[in-house]
Write a structure and sequence with these properties.
Length: 339
């Protein structure tokens, strides 16, 4: 039997990156939700940045926002609670939200009649009803009502898999979350103020005039992470030098006279802060533009240390989208060329 995920399965194309680098999931034609803050915002197709990559999904998984993903689907943990209300059972109620559950078969809507016929042949038509939701076939409870409790949905999932494993093996528990108020009016979607320098954000994703030919040293122990970032840097026409250890990084910095250092703090032979201390001892590198990518568990004290003591130019905390990293590298080099 396939593993049962507690997160909500959504089509992968509904999870993407906005032009400003924000990780979002799209719940409606004009509504998206920030995967890090849980905040809702209005969406227009002009806001689309790029499709999410495996590298970006792996960061979200490490940060506890994504439970699992494959080529077609992403299993998201509950938002915006992110599991902080473990004592609430659904129908879950928190800040006037009511949650109920259904089963996502992950089968296309064209299979609706086939699934309903299968339920009839299994003698389960009175217990379950097949419907289409978001171009996929879903299973609801008796008379088309969603399951009130998570355990009810999980038990239904196990029963269906036991009866017809070939058909229901990829079925996942998903949820419906609605707003419950005294007058049953759904709260409006929040519209977030546009960034002060929107033109720069847009330019950072396409313009290479400030990055073409510049030398970037990329330091990090995770080869997959380095590959993802290196591929993006090549699109920016940067000359990339990469290192997997602090020792290799120090050699590169002295040999190639880089314009920017992009580094992970977790290096196998030396902590990033210790390496930066050695970098600052080299006269020619004291003013080197430095961008640090920190683990998602980074503390506010570590961030304060980075900006005041280590004096890095940019301090990013994972998960970091490729769009956001590109924006910061572009802005840092633009500022450097203007100074």
């Amino acid at each position: 039997m396939n593993k049962i995920y507690s997160g909500s399965a959504v089509s992968r194309y509904h999870v993407f990156i906005l032009a400003d680098g924000t990780f979002v999931v799209q719940w409606g034609e004009t509504q998206v939700q920030d995967l890090l803050s849980g905040r809702y915002r209005a969406f227009d197709y002009h806001d689309f940045g790029h499709s999410i990559t495996d590298y970006e999904l792996s960061q979200l998984k490490a940060a506890g926002r994504v439970e699992h993903y494959n080529r077609n689907y992403v299993w998201l943990y509950a938002l915006p609670e992110q599991g902080r209300f473990a004592e609430l059972k659904t129908q879950d109620r928190s800040r006037n939200r009511v949650r109920s559950y259904y089963l996502n078969t992950t089968l296309p809507s064209s299979q609706l009649e086939t699934i309903q016929s299968l339920l009839n042949s299994l003698g389960m038509a009175e217990e379950f009803l097949a419907r289409v939701r978001g171009d996929l076939v879903v299973i609801l409870g008796k008379n088309g009502a969603p399951f009130a409790q998570l355990t009810d949905a999980e038990n239904a999932q196990k029963l269906l898999v036991s009866k017809a494993e070939d058909t229901f093996r990829d079925t996942a528990v998903a949820f419906i979350e609605s707003t419950s108020t005294s007058n049953s009016v759904v709260q409006p979607v929040e519209r977030v103020a546009e960034p002060a320098d929107l033109l720069s954000i847009i330019a950072s994703q396409t313009d290479t005039s400030v990055t073409d030919g510049k030398i970037a040293v990329l330091a990090g122990s995770d080869e997959n992470e380095r590959t993802a970032i290196k591929d993006m840097f090549h699109k920016m026409k940067l000359d990339v030098k990469e290192a997997g250890t602090a020792r290799e990084t120090l050699y590169l910095l002295e040999d190639c006279h880089p314009d920017v250092l992009v580094m992970d703090l977790q290096l196998p032979d030396m902590h990033g802060w210790a390496m930066l201390g050695k970098v600052k001892e080299i006269d020619s590198l004291r003013q080197l533009t430095t961008i640090v990518i920190a683990d998602h568990a980074s503390s506010p004290n570590e961030q304060a240390f980075a900006l005041t003591v280590a004096k890095v130019n940019v301090y990013l905390v994972k998960p970091v989208s490729m769009a956001r990293l590109r924006q910061n590298v572009w802005m840092a080099l633009k500022d450097k060329s203007a100074s």
